[in-house]
Amino acid sequence: MGEAASQRVVVLGAGRVATHLVPALVHAGYDVAQVWSRTELSAHILAEPLGIPYTDDLSAIVPDADVYIACVADGALPGVAKEIVAHVKCPSHTVLFLHTAGSVSMDVWREAGATRYGILYPLQTFSKERSVDMREVSLFVEASDEASLTAVEALAYGLSTKVYRADSRRRALLHVAAVFACNFTNAMYDAAHQLLATDDIPFDVLLPLIDETAAKVHVLTPREAQTGPAVRGDVAVMQSHIDSLANNPDLQSLYAQISKMIMN
C-alpha cells in the first residue's frame, strides 16, 4: 500500500470505465487527487461519494500529479491528451500519461508532447449499474519505454491479478475479438428478446440457456461447445426458422449468414 499511497493519480473521464477504475484505485491505496469530466454532474456522481475533488474544467486539473489516466471516448482522446500534457507542470520525465482505450495507439500521447506514456486497457464490459470485481479483469499494458512499462505494470497489478503486455497490434486484435464475444453476442440477446416479445414470452426463459452456454466455454473450446441445427447440418429446421422470420428480413439474412459460418 505504501508505494501506491505515494502516487497521486488524476482520472480524466467519468463514464463507464472510470466509474469502475476510480473506486479500484482508491481501494488499492492510490491517492486519487481529482476526477475530471466534461459534465460537472457526472464528475460529482463519481467523485463525491469517495471524497475526491472533481472538476469539469480541464484548465483546473491538478497540474502536479504522478499519473494521469484518460478514460474518455476514442474521438476525444487527441484533444484531451494535447490539453492535459500542455497543462501539467511537473518535469515531463517524471509524469506518466495513460489511456484505457483498446483501439487507440499510445502514440496519441507522444503526438501531444508527452515523454512517458502508455496504455492500461481493461478487457471487460462495464455498466454504471453493475459492480465488477476489478481483481478479475484482464488488464493489458504497453508503454513508451521499459521503465514506464514497469511502472504501468506495477499500477495494473495493484488493481488486478491478471496483467498482460500487449502492443497496439495485439490490443486491436483483442478489441475486435471482444466485440464478437461481447457486443455482438449482446445484440443477439436483444434480437431474441424482441422475437419473444412479439408473443409476450418473457426473456427470462432464456437465462438458463444463456448461462450454460457461457459456462461451457470455461471447459470446452467454442467449437466443441457449438450446438444447434447448423452444426448438425439440419437444413429443414434452418429453413423453417428462416421462413418464420419473413417479417424481419434483416434477421433472416443474419440467421442465414451465421448458419453458413457455423456449417463451414
- Main-sheet strand order equals 3-2-1-4-5-6-7-8
Strand % is 5-15%
Question: What is the first-to-last residue Cα distance?
Answer: 52 Å
Coarse shape: elongated
Total domain units: 2
CATH class value of the largest domain: Alpha Beta
CATH superfamily of the largest domain, by name, is NAD(P)-binding Rossmann-like Domain
Kindly report the oligomeric state of this protein: single chain
Query: What is the CATH architecture term of the largest domain?
Result: 3-Layer(aba) Sandwich
Largest sheet: 8 strands, mixed
Helix content: 40-55%
- Find the CATH topology of the largest domain: Rossmann fold
The topology string of helices and strands comes to HEHEHEEHEHEEHEHHHHHH
> Could you say which structural class the secondary elements and strand pairing correspond to?
alpha/beta
What is the number of helical segments per DSSP (H or I, 4+ residues)?
12
Radius of gyration: 22 Å
- Low-confidence region ranges: none
Number of strands: 8
Report mean pLDDT, rounded to a whole number.
94
